[in-house]
Fold these 4 entries.
Entry 1:
Amino acid sequence: MNIAVKRMTAPEWRPAPPEAPGMTYPWTTPPGLGETVEVAPGVLWLRMPLPFALDHINLWALRDGDGWTLVDCGIAMDEVKALWREHFATSLGGDPVTRVIVTHFHPDHFGCAGWLARETGADVWMSRTEWLMGLNVHRDQEELGKTAQVALFAAHGLDTTQLGALTKRGNQYRKIVSEPPASYRRLRNGDSFPIGDHDWRIIVGTGHAPEHACLYCDNLGLLISGDQILPKITPNVSLQAAEPGANPLKDFLDSLDNFRGLRADTMVLPSHEYPFRGLEARLDHLGEHHDERLAEVADACAEPVTAAELVPVLFRRELDTHQTMFAMGESLSHLMYLVADGRLVRERAGTDGSDGPWRFRKV
């Protein structure tokens, strides 16, 4: 994971996107920094800034008896910590934080988890795989993960300039993720537990992260979807060097079925953009989008091509180094899906079967 950190500014206000078929947006204005919007009784929506092109994350505070359960944390930078302290005194009324739930290990979700635990005394709740992933990446002082990712991208055609830029980076994750908590409370798929007056159930999604925990409350008709289901953009689904034979895009698409059959009027609370209704329609849109992209990738492999050569097929805009790394991972996830599906084959260019980058061609 490679993160380009820059100075943060207030998130740019953007209107909700045009309503897609079957989807509606109850709110068209987000809360400002230090502000909240009550989206349901005892459920507060707040935003924190991010130093990336995607410049915000939505976080959630759930009334929990005399205190509050927080869902996701923001990154561990001084501006975010100052905003949390402001919320403790104002939005949360000085009441205690009872627990911190983290949907997955990515830095905008896990970044302040350890700091919040130490600041408030609350336990951190998350799935085992996500806690272990966060712990592992944060403590990777030898940068073994980055070295392996560079080698994976080199083997799939990324040019030496971009590989060099990636190699020069230190552990960017550590810069915006506080020391992880020494212990945690484990969340499992299907777990159900009360938060305040309502029961919430864990629904796990995969592909974007290995064991992404979403929270569903049938009584309130709310789904806190994290990054698994977003209203307009699709979450990044990347092949990771630690598991080069995986099929993360199939994992992602298969796990979308876990979210079908919920209340028809469920309001989805995503980590980016705006809350929306129309979950089943959005699940359909995500499946259709990836079907179209997979067909485009397969057609682009009429002649043997590398994953790097396919990046412009999937991303039709100029990318910086940070974005190129995610684009390479996404390109590989689509290619590996098509190989597993029997539509592509993967082969080396050299006569001895080992030289040159891997190339993919249509069967």
Entry 2:
Amino acid sequence: MHWIVIFFILHILVCTVVLCLRILRILKCGYINIFIAFFVPVWGMVMLIRKRYSDKHSEREGEEIDARMPTAEFEKKSVPIDQDEKDIVPLAEALAVNDSVTRRDIMMDILYSVNKSIVVENDDLKEKVVPLEEALVVNDTATRRNLIIDVLYSNPSEYVAQLNDAKENKDTEVVHYAATALAEIQKDFDLKFHDIMLRKAEDPDNEATDNEYQVLLENYIASGLLEGDALKNQLRNYSELLDRKISRKETKGRWTLLNKKADADLKLRDAKALDKDVVLMSKRWPEHENVYMYKMQSAMLKKDSVRIREIIKEIRDKNIYLSAELRGLVQFWDEKAG
């Protein structure tokens, strides 16, 4: 029995040494072979040695691959540098001083590097694409219905104008789909307004709720769902909300809010409210062109040609910067006066 214990101790020591050599990558073999050698004394070790000898004299043995993720440092080392850094000049300088051939080569390199990762597929149908409004008019019944269904499954709120046109289509199914989509968009707005109004009732001065209400009103007004008195009512709500926000001393972005309110009052054709907006603008930004733009718009709402010419004279006397829109108004009234 004594010699059996010694044998197993020697066997375990040998296997341990083999395992250490494998961990240190001195011995190249699979861990499964060491596992077999451990549990099959003598013959397992013989098999391991025989397989190692066989691998060494055959083409099956390959270099181990380091599967670690490449680091930036590793990538830098792997990039061959054929030229000295002192030969490199800025791109702008290279384009300015080099000859035409070099400049073209540089630009081709840039274009290649920009475009090589972009896959551009040939679109044979590109010239066959027509606006949705035209497609609803000229295409066959199946195509019209498929178009409307595509709109319903994409983002119908972006196609309100087209859906309104589709309601006048001769195809009753297209009309039904369009009306259903518009009703769903309207319902979504109604639910959002209801939720905000409940929160405003609980906390009327909550700034975050007012900001959310402002964005919702802007989206609703711009959606194309509103017209006539409904549009005027929402514009009035929008103007009143902005007026409350502007009246707060801690309000940020006052200039932007004033411009938005002036635009809303202009759409409402409310010259009195627009004059109030202009007064507030003039207190902090007296020389800004928008002040004179809204002054002229207010005078035009009142049909006060004398006041319009006074504003034009003031613009010229103060040498106010004229944008294309303001310049067009001034030229229009100059021609009218002439």
Entry 3:
Amino acid sequence: MPWFTAQSTLTLRRVEEFVQFHEWSCASVGAQLRQRTPLDILRRRANFDYFTLDGPDDPVLAVNMENNYGFRYPVLSEAAIDAGAAAELGSRATSSGRRSMTLMGTEHSVRAVERSVLVNFGRKPKYRVEYFLMTRPMAPVEETRSPAAERCQFSRADARHTDHLLHMQVAYEEEEVVVDGRKVDPQATRFHLRDDLREQLVFFATHEGAAVAKAGTNARGFTYDQIGGVYTVPALRGQGISTALMQVLLNKITESRKNTVLFVKKANKSAIAVYDRLGFTARDSFVISYYQ
């Protein structure tokens, strides 16, 4: 099948061009490409394959980002799906040889690969989480403060704030990320949070000396920044603190000349209403499928 590994500067540039065109749906892939270095490629931190109808020099119709832990992010055009790109991806064993695998992407891309996994291995996802993929064009937003937000101090976070924000990140992962009842490992979370605070745009709100809310990016692509990890402590939810943080964050993203994307669980009506008011529009359905 016409999937090819992108290893040279030339092939990676062609993959970049395809991803940039579709980046509203795959900001995480764009971020990995944007941050890649020759050393990253050598260490196989993330592998990129591309699909064409015939040979490696034909137009790119699909891209797949994959790592050795069974994570796959397929970005498939309809033409690629019709030509068998998803069928071939689903026929592969996980890179590590383990049974665990995570598929992540737009509904049509993930479903197409899921069908192939079912045909080839008789496996269905153990967990499947559905989201709305929402985008916002680059534009400033008026910053307003609710009475509760007025009582908070807003700050830009960096690595020095890791321990100050760790309790919220752990709580966020327990509510939004863990799907099988496992316990969050605070040390692993701390490690990843520290790295994020070095590389991402993150803001937090403090009330009476305690961090009570946060909002930030989790992927910074070529033309889109992706927002994730938005969290407010339960006692202060619904009081406009996260909305005010989001306004600050969106203006910083706009200063960077980027559009914005996020995905939110379809059942989270309150968050969807906030994002609607901030100018986001649902563009597609987004899916994370967990195979174990």
Entry 4:
Amino acid sequence: MSLRNDAAIGDRDWTSYYAAVAGKPPRDTLVMATEKFAHEGRKPGRAIDLGCGEGRDTRELLRRGWSVLAIDPHPAGLARLRESLAELPALPPPHESCRIVQASLEDAASGRAGIAGSFDLVNASFVLPFVPPDNFGGVWEWTCSLLGEKESGGRFAGQFFGPRDSWASIPGRSHHSRAEVEHMLAGLEVEHFQEDEKDGVDAEGNEKHWHVFHVVARRTGSVFLPRSVLF
């Protein structure tokens, strides 16, 4: 399935980005979340990789035995992911263990991408900040709903960008304060919360001030706050 949303893709040179991150390891939050399932004695289940890009986290999930729904709006990243799946001969054929959908998170949240059901693991590595502010509430509400019913024990792993991140000045990006992130996580049991703020470079070597919240959180019996309360 392919749903192209140019507004969601934005004006970033994603092709160059995917080339720059080729061969990079999976995100620490993704690895941490999968290891928590293993420590609980839970077998790999069903995962969704939001904004999967070229597949660094999707491939790790597949290596660990998870079934993955990988979603991203950019065809260049998905093409790289498909190519890399063919290089993993120890895995079942891709159609058995990995489904790929080209769509923005806004399309997915609206139901236009045809994504249904719940997932044991919802991975959102460095993707939520690229959702426009006007759409963020609906996307976050949908992201939480993917974790299923209360007591499901489903996990979320991902990042939020803080207000002092240098990309906060770019139109169409969503940045949140620590208090706002904590409020959004009110219906989850937070297992890992790390705030990083430092000067550095982005994936392509450009100077950047980072302000990032790294999160791993688990679905419990709590009730999620509705969008009207969150935003």
